[in-house]
Specification:
The complex is a heterodimer of chains A (about 325) and B (about 500).
Chain A (H helix, E strand, L loop, with lengths): L1 H28 L4 H6 L5 H11 L5 H13 L13 H36 L4 H15 L2 H15 L15 H35 L2 H8 L4 H38 L5 H11 L2 H29 L1 H6 L1
Helix pairs in contact in A: 1-12, 5-6, 5-8, 5-10, 6-8, 7-8, 7-10, 8-10, 9-10, 10-11, 10-12, 11-12
Chain B lengths: L2 H7 L15 E6 L14 H7 L8 E3 L5 E3 L2 E6 L5 E6 L13 H12 L8 H5 L1 E8 L2 E6 L6 H4 L26 E7 L3 E6 L13 E6 L3 H9 L5 E5 L5 H5 L4 E16 L9 H10 L2 H9 L4 E2 L22 H10 L6 E7 L3 H16 L2 E7 L2 H10 L5 E6 L20 H12 L3 H18 L3 E13 L2 E2 L16 E2 L1
Parallel strand pairs in B: 1-10, 14-15, 14-16
Antiparallel strand pairs in B: 2-3, 4-5, 5-7, 6-7, 8-9, 9-10, 11-17, 12-16, 12-17, 13-17, 18-19
């Protein structure tokens, strides 16, 4: 287990270095001068040059890359070009929203998917199965931004139960803050749940064909208990793998959902930063998201061992 | 994102009118969040839309009809040669941090804007000042190197607001001005909150107790928020396609006013084919303005025939110079040697009018035998490739700066017009202080641009305001980017 962890840690660091190079090079290639973008078409050449120097954009690229990495090693991300506040401070504010949003959407999606998937598998090729499959097909077909708009129209405009987006902040209290997140979480979770339901269903069907299931049923164990005690755990390995991969989708989905619901999270920050050419925010944000996805998938790998003792022994 | 908006918005028609309690604050929606809140060091229009006349004030102010009134200056006199302005300043004015406003602040601000490392986008206004002197604490004398007929208007723009030395360095994150509203907080990515300053010199005239500017980039989300009553006012709405839906709502009101945005088919006058007058004339004849305004702006917009705002007193209507006439366009192309066809690129920035208008313009040009290759680009790329490198054939963009016909006289500007006759007309217009002479030259300049078909002149961008019916005093027109909330109140 120890060598496994060390190996994973090294690969984690290498992936991050690779990602950082990729991000930096991509932003270098991306056309558009941040200083010109900030000052606009009517700015005199000298003002643009003054701003470029201020932002440190007049120095060679390798030097700027090394500066960035050295800064990260010291725990500094620098100042946002546009907001003129430390990038880390911006991220801290934004992650307070995006992390709960993404995890809540994952949790809701998992709950829905496991319930619906197990149900569909246990009713294989019957009406219940068809129903679940049709619903998940629909969930996959509906883009999450459109679902978001529909939810706003229904709950904020027609029924008047919630606000049409926005976030009061955690300082407004847990209740109002969570209330503002309900619709975005649902909009984000539906697509994820639709994918995951299909995985749960097929994984369960696979396990249902195993000999030990027949044995359990033969010795008189009820269908529900067999599903819960023997099938579910065995079906979890592929499901957890896909959940890890879906987490990246959830993070990407927040960019769209946060814009639809005008939530001040990482997604909205990245979106704005790209159009403003706030490159320092973009590169750090993308690297942070990459790290987050890698960490989550690492956690998934560790989960295997927990779910399936055979993984532990093999290693 | 337009089609699904229309579908999603249908149920909005069923909405009941919400009740209004005695409100004393206003929540505005803006599409873009400003980068910082100091208009003297940042150029984004969003900065002015929050701070101008609300937080910061200039010596003068520009009114809704583009006339100029006193603001921090009580009065002024101009020397006969138009080069020396003597401002008498208002007394008893304080900044939000408690410091007194006097002539020293004006001198500090203007000199800072002119400095070597100044990031002011209107630096040239201030480098044109030969000297700024303060004979006493409430008098400022500004001597110009060259007379500028628009000087008083310019001193009312966002780039000319007066700041104090104590707060200048931190104004971008914590603005301090002399205006009726002071800064409370900025939740990045979400909103900026302002509150009425009890120490404001004329606080009795300010009806609103607070302002909240919320940043909602998505058009559908903006409309949903105003329908739900979360937002009271969208001063610059881009949702032309939702006008009918909003009009059907009993609680809301839409007004359509004018802006300084001349929307043009920018043309690279150094392109081998486009450098020929006949080709540009052919394009002018190929364009059907009515179809573009209807298709791209849902009818909101005024056709233009040159680069000048129709609401300006010196405006000349030149839309008839090259009327829509595809046959004539084809003939002109043939005469120019492009009878067998011509291929041009059309680079479109990400605004609705450009992307939608671009499709229509492309079709209109194809009808006369010009093949158009559309490329959609982001703003930063547009700025670099089209504006800076001039690597384009055609583009569509709205030139939103007030009174900007002078850009055609700029050397190496991205239209690459560089016309000596036009430059001479503009030089004469700028050199005179006599309004009648200036007016004559400005009219000549409009004629010259229309005649040469320098760009395709499409329409004047409309200011679409969506607001709660209970709000009064909101500007209908936009002579520049500003949301002057001082005279706004609830009924």
């Amino acid at each position: 287990m120890a060598t496994y962890l060390i190996r994973r840690l090294i690969s984690f660091c290498l992936t991050l270095v690779g990602a950082s190079v990729l991000i930096f090079v991509m932003l270098e290639i991306l056309p558009g001068d941040p200083a010109l973008t900030m000052l606009g078409v009517d700015a005199p050449e000298s003002a643009v040059a003054a701003l470029r120097a201020d932002l440190g954009l007049d120095r060679p690229a390798p030097e700027r890359y090394l500066d960035w990495i050295a800064g990260l090693a010291r725990g500094e991300m620098g100042l946002s070009f546009t907001y003129q506040v430390p990038v880390a401070e911006l991220f801290a504010e934004r992650l307070e929203l995006t992390v709960p949003l993404a995890f809540a959407a994952m949790a809701l999606a998992s709950l829905l998917a496991i319930g619906a998937g197990l149900y569909a598998a246990s009713r294989h090729n019957r009406a219940g199965d068809w129903g679940v499959m049709t619903a998940s097909q629909l969930g996959l077909a509906i883009p999450n931004f459109w679902l978001g708009i529909l939810l706003i129209v229904l709950f904020a405009l027609v029924l008047g139960w919630t606000k049409a987006g926005g976030f009061p902040g955690w300082e407004a209290g847990i209740g109002p803050a969570l209330g503002a997140l309900v619709l975005p979480v649902v909009a984000l979770a539906i697509t994820l749940a639709s994918i995951l339901t299909r995985v749960v269903r097929s994984a369960t069907l696979e396990v249902l064909r195993e000999d030990f299931v027949r044995t359990a049923r033969a010795k008189g164990l009820g269908r529900g208990r067999t599903l819960r005690r023997h099938v579910l755990r065995n079906a979890m390995i592929p499901v957890v793998t896909v959940m890890g991969l879906l987490f990246a989708d959830a993070m990407a989905g927040t960019i769209v959902i946060e814009n639809v619901f005008s939530l001040p999270g990482m997604g909205k920050l990245i979106f704005g930063a790209i159009s403003n050419r706030d490159l320092i925010v973009v590169k750090n944000a993308v690297l942070l998201l990459a790290a987050l996805v890698i960490v989550v998938n690492f956690a998934v790998d560790l989960l295997y061992a927990l779910i399936d003792p055979r993984v532990r022994i093999r290693d | 994102m337009r089609n699904w908006l229309a579908v999603a918005a249908l149920p909005l028609l069923l909405l009941p009118a919400a009740a209004e309690a005695g409100k004393s604050t206003v929540t505005l929606a803006m599409a873009l969040e400003p980068p910082g809140l100091d208009p003297t060091t940042g150029a984004a229009a969003a900065i002015a839309q929050i701070t101008l006349y609300n937080v910061y004030e200039g010596l003068t102010r520009v009114n809704q009809d583009a006339t100029v009134s006193p603001m921090l200056a009580e009065s002024w006199t101009v020397s006969d040669d138009g080069k020396t302005y003597t401002f008498k300043l208002k007394q008893g004015v304080t900044f939000h941090d408690g410091t007194d406003f006097d002539a020293g602040d004006v001198k500090f601000t203007y000199e800072r804007n002119a400095a070597e490392d100044s990031k002011n986008k209107r630096k040239k206004y201030f480098t044109n000042m030969a000297s700024i002197t303060a004979p006493d604490a409430h008098t400022v004398v500004v001597a110009l190197k060259e007379p500028r007929p628009t000087f008083l208007f310019n001193m009312g723009e966002s780039t000319s607001v007066i700041v104090n030395e104590e707060a200048a360095a931190t104004n971008a994150t914590k603005p301090v001005g002399t205006g009726p509203f002071k800064f409370v907080k900025w939740t990045k990515g979400d909103k900026v909150v302002l509150a009425r300053d009890p120490g404001y010199r004329d606080v009795g005239a300010i009806k609103l107790e607070g302002l909240t500017f919320r940043f909602i980039n998505d058009q559908a989300a903006q409309i949903a928020a105003v329908m739900a009553g979360d937002i009271d006012l969208i001063p610059y709405s881009r949702a032309a396609e939702s006008i009918d839906v909003i009009k059907a709502n009993e609680r809301l009101q839409v007004t359509i006013g004018t802006t300084e945005g001349e929307t043009i088919l920018s043309t690279n006058n150094k392109h081998p084919a486009l450098s020929k007058l006949k080709v540009r004339q052919a394009i002018a004849h190929a364009i059907d303005r009515a179809e573009i305004i209807e298709g791209a702006m849902f009818g909101a917009g005024t056709p233009i025939g040159s680069h000048f705002a129709p609401h300006n007193p010196d405006y000349v209507d030149l839309t008839g110079r090259y009327p829509h006439d595809p046959a004539k366009a084809k003939a002109l192309l043939a005469e120019a040697g492009h009878g067998s066809g011509l291929e041009l690129s059309l680079k479109l920035p990400p605004t609705g009018y450009a992307r939608d208008g671009g499709q229509i313009v492309a079709q209109q040009l194809e009808r006369v035998g010009i093949k158009v290759k559309i490329a959609n680009v982001e703003w930063p790329i547009w700025l670099k490739e089209v504006y800076k490198q001039k690597n384009y054939d055609l583009s569509i963009v709205s030139h939103v700066e007030p009174m900007d016909i002078g850009i055609y006289a700029r050397k190496n500007y991205y239209f690459q017009y560089d016309n000596a006759d036009f430059n001479a007309i503009m030089a004469k217009a700028d050199a005179t202080t006599d309004p009648a002479t200036r007016s004559k030259h400005l009219k000549q300049a409009q004629h010259k641009l229309a005649e040469d078909a320098v760009n395709g002149y499409l329409f004047q961008l409309a200011k679409i305001t969506v607001k709660d019916k209970g709000l009064q005093g909101v500007w209908r027109n936009s002579p520049m980017f500003v949301n002057d909330m001082r005279s706004v109140s609830w009924k």
